[in-house]
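Fold this sequence, please.
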Amino acid sequence: LVGLMALMGCGQIVSVISNAGTEASVPIVTDPVYVEDGLTGGSFNSPDNNFLVVIPAGTMPAALSATPTVTQTTASAAQILSQGETLISNAYELNLQSVADLVTTSSLEVNLTFDPTGIPSDKLNSRYVYAKVYHPGSQSALAIFGTVSGSNLRLSTRGLAQDAIFTVVYNPNMEVVLSDAVAGSSVASFAT
């Protein structure tokens, strides 16, 4: 009982998905000496509940020694935004605190809350509202499209960088290229 109480006093408390698929609150033991300390799945939420990552149980190999954290951060518009984009959410840093990136064949879910104020109803969809993910290591930003529902953007991905900053952006200038519009172009010639 004393050993259990000592264990409960270490680390942070997070919601972790057990092998049975149920959630339980358990401590993250952050002693880097033991590989088995790494989590294999769970739900990781920002303190303001506007950013949530759900990693299914068994998706992260324990050898990654991952102990993910989510924090609200600041984002440099110059590093993240492209022409025409407007930031419409807070920025959140997901740090896996792992020995490598997470690449998997399972879907990982990322949910971000954003402010839809000022977005016309006909543009409140995934063509115009999407995530920008900034990777500090490579100093690059990538657009990721998902599903928009009200003030929530849901992404499904097959991997996560060790450290990434997530934001939601709005770009009223996004257009879709239909296959008829591409006919006769150099893109069409590459496909033939």
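The two ends are 70 Å apart (CA to CA). Confidence is low (pLDDT under 50) at residues 1-35, 185-192.
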